[in-house]
Amino acid sequence: MCMSENSRDNLERALNELSEKIRREPDRAQHHLDRASIWMRLKKDREAIRNLDEAIRLRPDDSETHHLRGWLWQGLGDVEAAVRDYTRAIALDPDRNHTFNNRANAHSDIGNYDAAIHDFAEALRLDPEDHIAMLNRGLMFLDMGDLEAALRDFDAIDRFVAGCEDMHVWRGLTLLKLGRIDAAAEDFDIADRLQSGRLQRPNLRASTLIGRAYVSRAKGEPARAAADIEAAKAIDPEAETNLIRRGLA
């Protein structure tokens, strides 16, 4: 969603006010945290990190600030820096289930699957019904080629959360790969209903259409399959390529 000029002006005015506060009280960590928050709303994450650096220098034992900086580093693609910050956040507060989840994703991004499995297990030990950790671990198992392990995580989500759109799409693709066509079709139909009448996430919608196209192809319905593939390409031209990389297409 685009930011209005009025909103941007208000944020830039707030930045100037915080700059003045920092000039008067340079050793107040909260001023730097507040300024980082505004930079993030302006989509300027490197500037936000500079303010978080100062906040951490002033208040080095704040777990949340380390977590936040790690999240920004991860978004910028510096996974090693992200892992360092998440590790520090966990050392300061070992009950941070969402930090274990984020660090697991970071490890998974660089193929460090043993460390990722450990961190997902810790996240789920702290919150056994954390469906986000289950979903992320399931996606990691897909990347590892362990379809049955992925399916166990997706099935577990179904027991805890009704109407999880992501789960139905990814479970459908997993079932399709396992040759369970009818079960896959059911998941894609549920995902389609969940996506109807709401703001759609383009990559997930495209994956749903591709999965449904493969079901149609398996059932001998080439015209419907072709229509769904074309619709998916119109939404996200890279969607099928991304599924191929994941071994799901």
UniProtKB/TrEMBL annotation:
TPR repeats lie at residues 29-62, 63-96, 97-130. It comes from the Bacteria. SUPFAM superfamilies: TPR-like. Keywords: Repeat, TPR repeat. InterPro entries: TPR-like_helical_dom_sf (IPR011990), TPR_2 (IPR013105), TPR_rpt (IPR019734), Ycf3 (IPR050498). Transmembrane segments: none annotated. Gene3D superfamilies: Tetratricopeptide repeat domain. PROSITE patterns: TPR. This is Uncharacterized protein. The lineage of its organism: Bacteria, Pseudomonadati, Pseudomonadota, Alphaproteobacteria, Rhodospirillales.
